[in-house]
Amino acid sequence: MAVPSFVDKVTLHVAGGSGGDGVASVHREKFKPLGGPDGGNGGNGGSVILQVGADVTTLIDYHHEPHRRGTNGAPGAGNNRSGSNGDDLVLRVPDGTVLKDASGEILADLVGPGTELVIAAGGRGGLGNAALASSKRKAPGFALKGEPGDELTITMELKVVADIGLIGFPSAGKSSLIASLSRARPKIADYPFTTLAPNLGVVTAGSTTFTVADVPGLIEGASEGRGLGHDFLRHVERCAALIHVIDCATVDPGRDPLTDLDVIEAELKAYSEATGSDLLDRPRLVALNKTDVPDAKEIAGFVRGELEARGLDVFDVSAASHAGLRELSFAMAEIVASRRAATPVAEVTRIVLRPKAEAGVGREFTIDQVNGQWVVRGEKPKRWVRQTDFANDEAVGFLADRLNRLGVEDELLKQGAQAGDDVVIGDEDNAVVFDFDPQVSAGAEVLGRRGEDLRIDQSDRRTNAQRREELAAKRAFEAERREARGESREPDWTFPEDEDDLEGGALEGGEGEDVR
């Protein structure tokens, strides 16, 4: 099987690199057994970037390697060391590449050398426990996981960026014409469909320089998939004008210049209706080619009047003798110059493509009841679920606290969710199901916020005021005991408080001091 040298349409699977996981670590050194959290953050994953290259003319590289992925970020480490970021993957594409998603919607049109587009962003790295520490959560025992990168399948279509497009039947002389007008050297032979890929040539006429592209031969039924024309007509969609190259020296039965023109016009109309393009609205010229042949020159004279009556500008040309090429090139230059003058100068701006909101405009999330389950949709809840290590109870508590602050719990209660109901959060193919367990405060009980480590705030040490009260109670007890001994009666020797902490009756004070 022959290996194609020109590919103008490919399907590409791209994925950004995953972010590195954060790490949970505690600083340790001599005489400091608990020096605080020092877990570093994970590195960000590398993105997949499409960049227009001036020297790239085909998509063949992606035909052979249709799967591309960015580099993953490295995980964090202790001692506040963050993981390294993944390397971006830059894919060079030809000028005029159109990107479409799986549904056929156009994502971007890459025109102009140096134009870049981040097609698949890398995932963000997870936070380490040092970044998660706060005044309420002084020693987190968990870290966040890195996020996976974007994954999508796109279709790349190349539409050659040219000012003038040459169209016509096979062997009409388009390749010979572009070779005579410019320094392009396409393959030329005396059999149909010699040209299997669009050819570009640069033409200078006066002070105007423009590009000309020839399209592989059109035949009747090309708009329905016959021949090669339907596949390559996209390459003239950007052209300012179209040139009908008509073979006046053909010997094929049933062929004549007027019939050839009608067939090509019908195919342009069918293609425009099928794709929504406006090829029929472009200025069109007619080049009656091969007039160096005596019979062809005579036929050109017969049909000139009919073509001009249709409002077309007609030129007798010969790619072999170069007759009429100067007039044709200046006519093309006039059309190109007029179009450029009418087109306003585009300001260089930064284009930012943002995905469509998944959960309604202006809302962080939505909740719907599907098959008896409460389905929470929204970018933030899904991202938080992806970041959570469900093997760590404290991390799960932190997730619950984040969802509660976002208002998920209140909205579930508002919609009638009951304790024990299933709550589904996450991507459809990797969702996580929770049992709904709303937080309830009873009486004067003080409950800590979910995800917080209350062990840090717990302290069994008594204050000075408490010590004074206990000391006064102890003295009263001792006085009662002495009084009972003096009266020769048995006292109650039970003292409700532990005397170990009050041994000696000393309170906290300076060294050698007795606050009594």
From TrEMBL:
Its cofactor is Mg(2+). The lineage of its organism: Bacteria, Bacillati, Actinomycetota, Actinomycetes, Propionibacteriales. This is GTPase Obg. It holds the Pfam family DUF1967. SUPFAM superfamilies: Obg GTP-binding protein C-terminal domain, Obg GTP-binding protein N-terminal domain, P-loop containing nucleoside triphosphate hydrolases. It comes from Aeromicrobium endophyticum. Residues 474-492 have a biased composition (Basic and acidic residues). InterPro entries: G_OBG (IPR031167), GTP-bd (IPR006073), GTP-bd_Obg/CgtA (IPR014100), GTP-bd_prot_GTP1/OBG_C_sf (IPR036346), GTP1-OBG_CS (IPR006074), GTP1_OBG_dom (IPR006169), GTP1_OBG_dom_sf (IPR036726), OBG_GTPase (IPR045086). It comes from the Bacteria. Residues 65-89, 474-516 are annotated as: Disordered. Belongs to the TRAFAC class OBG-HflX-like GTPase superfamily. OBG GTPase family.
